[in-house]
Amino acid sequence: MRERYLMKHDKRGRLSAEKISTRVLYVLLLAAVVVFAAFYAIGFSQPFEENPNFNEPLLTNAVLLLMALLLLGTLATAVWAVLVSRRMSRDVYAEENGIKTKRMAMLIAASTFVVMVLSFVLGSSKPLLINATPFTDVFWLKTADMFVWSSVIMLVVALVAVAYGYTRYYRKEKQ
Question: What values do phi and psi take at 136, rounded to 5?
């Protein structure tokens, strides 16, 4: 019984980081499922007043609100994590398990910034047809392209890193 308690709680009796993150994940998944299910189930086929050939789903604002809250929550969590990490890093060595943690953090932050800037600069500004109307705002077209391409690039890099780490044992056996 004691071992089970210690698996879920830290030394001070608080929930472990793993349990907290699991619960947060479940709450976020539940919120997304409920909002998107309601989006498709309630008034999805409502016709657009100006052009009945298009739909104007009733709960579009709820989906947009959820996305805005998730974005703001993510930004707030990132700022909080950076502040806590900076405060705690004064007590921690710059190297942990042979890995220079500060250098690694700076490399990740710089590479993320470079990927986002390059994908914005190289992003397409070609107008899009939205509801049979051309959308020509160059800034927002490039911003949307930046987020899409940055996400794709970072996902590919993450997959390569996972594959490289997964094959570590095979590489060690060959040496």
Answer: -120, 10
Angle formed by the axes of helices 101-121 and 60-89, to 10°? 150
Q: What is the arithmetic mean of pLDDT over 39-45?
A: 89
> H helices within 42-167, ranges in order?
60-89, 101-121, 138-166
Give the span between the Cα atoms of 79 and 76, in whole angstroms.
5
Per the DSSP assignment, residues forming a β-bridge with 100 are 95
Q: Write out pLDDT tens, residues 79-104.
A: 998 888 777 766 555 677 777 877 88
Q: What is the pTM of this model?
A: 0.57
Strand partners for 20:
none
3-class DSSP state of 93:
coil
Q: CA-to-CA distance for 162 and 85, rounded, in angstroms?
A: 24
Distance CA 28, CA 153 (A): 25
